[in-house]
Amino acid sequence: MKKQSIFYGIIVSGLALILIVENWDLAPGGIWTVWPALLLAGFAFLVESLSGRIPLSFLPGVLLLLLGAHFYLLQFTAFWPDHIGMYFLYFGAAFLVDSLKTRNSGLFTGILLSAAGAGFLYSSELRQASGTQVSYIVEMFFPIVLLGFGVYMIIVRR
Q: Which regions span the lipid bilayer (predicted)?
C-alpha cells in the first residue's frame, strides 16, 4: 500500500470506533446535523481538486458532498435511511470514486467499507437468514476486527 494507507487506516479505525460506541450504547447518536456546511465544504474541495490546484482534495470533497446530501435527505424526506451502514457506504463510495479518478490506493478499502455498509443496512435480513446467535457475534465483534484492520493499515503497512 502507498502512504495514503495511513489516512485510510485512520478512517476505518474511526468508523469502527463509532460502530462500537453505537452497538454497545456508550453514547447517544445523532452528532452530524450541519448538512449545508458539509455540502459547501465538499463543493469547495471538489472545485479545488478538479481545477488541478490541490488534487488530493478530491476524496474529502466527494465524502463531504455525500454526507451533506445524506443529512439533507434525512431532514427533508421520510424515506431516506438513518442507519450507520449509510456512513460505511459513503466512505466506501468516496474511496472507490477517488481510486478510479486518481488510480491510487483505496480500492480495497472502498470495497471493504461498501460491503460492510451493505451488510449493516441489511442486517435484519441477514439476521433472519443466519440466526440470532451468529448475527449477535458478528455485530459485536466485527467492529473489533475492523479496528484491527485499520490499526494494521496505520502501523504495519506504512
A: 7-24, 30-47, 54-73, 79-97, 104-122, 134-155
